[in-house]
Amino acid sequence: MTDNPDIRRLADWDAERLDSLADVHGTPLYVIDLDRVRENCERLKAAFPSEDVRYAVKAHTGRAVLETVREAGLAAECASAGEVMRAFDAGYEGDEVQYTAVNPPAEDLDYVVDAWREDHPDLTVTVGAADTVDRLRERGFDGRLCVRVNPGVGAGHHEKVQTGANAKFGVPYDRVPDLLERARDDFDVVGIHAHAGSGISGDDLENHRELVRRMGELARQVGELEFVDVGGGFGVPYHEDEPPLDLDAVAEATREAIGEIDATLAVEPGRYVVADAGVLLTRVNTVKEAPETTVVGVDAGMTTLLRPAMYDSYHALANLSGSDRVAIPVTVTGPICESADVLCEDRPLPRPERGDLLAIGNAGAYGYEMTSTYNSRPRPAEVALESSGSPESSDARLVRRREQRRDLTKLEDEV
Ligand code: LLP
């Protein structure tokens, strides 16, 4: 049995290796370790041995990641036609693909129904509104259908990622039995689904358990289901001193909360699979001693890693060039013309100097995925690490080239 810790901290990465990757590929640079992705999948499968584990691909849709997760035996939960397409590109077959339609544009339904009709008759469509059922019927879809439930209880690391009690998501709990009953005439009704929110840990786990309990009750009420999917949301520790989730305990509590059901329990983690498998490397452009703080300007900002600006998320930071220098409180900012473009505030960091290389931890989930080209900043490159047999060393390969300034006008040039 190989060593497979619950969390890989930023300090566990090989600093020299990261330094040489930055030299070769430039910065900002995402690094994703596929071996760690595989380890995370293995821990999930070990904690949920008789359950169905589906990867919420929105956390990281890179082809190398999807191929790794597929080989590790996890199915794919997709939020859009684009994600479904990426899953197929990575070798997934319809019977391992679950498309969760959230207010789906017509084009998405067209694509998914075509894929179902032509090549993937076993794909599952999850609907979150009675209206979506009608729109599928209009397109001639009579395949595997799952209904997303709004369980009335949410959880998550920030209010912006709590979905369980948000009216946008899912069919109101009390209306589900009736909708399912009617849908059984025209579709192969296979499951019910709910998702509390993202980044659940600590006291929030209680809310997650309540969601699971409600889903168990509903499953017993409606009968005849293949699966009950209680969503994703397993949190990872972003702070260095935060303990990791006890996945086995969470799995046990989930099984207990769902109770006796005549269906397979399914979970769909995204973050847990990729968060600690990724780091973001960035170089210091500017150091400014302001009266209030030392402002450290780096080449990654809110367009490279949006989470701190959007959710005030904490990400561990290390100065790989000067780890032995005295720490001073710094505010690390990006090159974007917005005051939200801050990666951390008043964080003690070994005194940064121009040209230093900084590493940002837990960047594998919702990192590259949420990049943009705002301020006409090209998106970063991404390198994947993967061992080629010897456990001590791994190969690095570029899996996403750096976007070039010229790429920014491509869509205009091509009309
Ligand atoms: N299933 C459904 C239906 C979801 O909407 C999501 C996440 C997941 C599963 C996976 O949740 P996870 O295991 O990754 O927590 N951008 C935010 C996270 C938004 C998550 C949206 N839905 C962030 O960076 O924190």
TrEMBL record:
Pfam families from the UniProt entry:
Orn_Arg_deC_N
In what residue span(s) does the Orn/DAP/Arg decarboxylase 2 N-terminal domain sit?
Answer: 35-275
- For bias type Basic and acidic residues, the affected ranges are 404-415
Active site, renumbered:
C337 (proton donor)
Alphabetically ordered keywords of this record: Amino-acid biosynthesis, Decarboxylase, Lyase, Lysine biosynthesis, Pyridoxal phosphate
The record's EC number reads 4.1.1.20
Which residues are pyridoxal 5'-phosphate-binding? G233, E268, P269, G270, R271, Y366
Entry-annotated residues carrying N6-(pyridoxal phosphate)lysine = K58
One BP annotation, GO: lysine biosynthetic process via diaminopimelate
Q: In which pathway does it act?
A: Amino-acid biosynthesis; L-lysine biosynthesis via DAP pathway; L-lysine from DL-2,6-diaminopimelate: step 1/1
Q: Which GO terms describe its molecular function?
A: diaminopimelate decarboxylase activity; pyridoxal phosphate binding
Q: Which cofactor does it need?
A: pyridoxal 5'-phosphate
Return the InterPro entries for the record: Ala_racemase/Decarboxylase_C, DAP_deCOOHase_LysA, De-COase2_CS, De-COase2_N, De-COase2_pyr-phos_BS, Orn/DAP/Arg_de-COase, PLP-binding_barrel
Q: Where is this region: Disordered?
A: 375-415
Q: Which domain of life is it from?
A: Archaea
- Reactions catalysed according to its record: meso-2,6-diaminopimelate + H(+) = L-lysine + CO2
The residues the record assigns to binding substrate are R271, R307, Y311, E338, Y366
**Family (UniProt):** Belongs to the Orn/Lys/Arg decarboxylase class-II family. LysA subfamily.
Subunit structure comment from the entry: Homodimer.
Please give the function described in this protein's UniProt entry.
Answer: Specifically catalyzes the decarboxylation of meso-diaminopimelate (meso-DAP) to L-lysine.
**HAMAP family registered for this protein in UniProt:** LysA (MF_02120)
Which named protein is this? Diaminopimelate decarboxylase
List the source organism.
Answer: Halogranum rubrum
Species lineage, top-down? Archaea, Methanobacteriati, Methanobacteriota, Stenosarchaea group, Halobacteria
Q: Which gene encodes it?
A: lysA
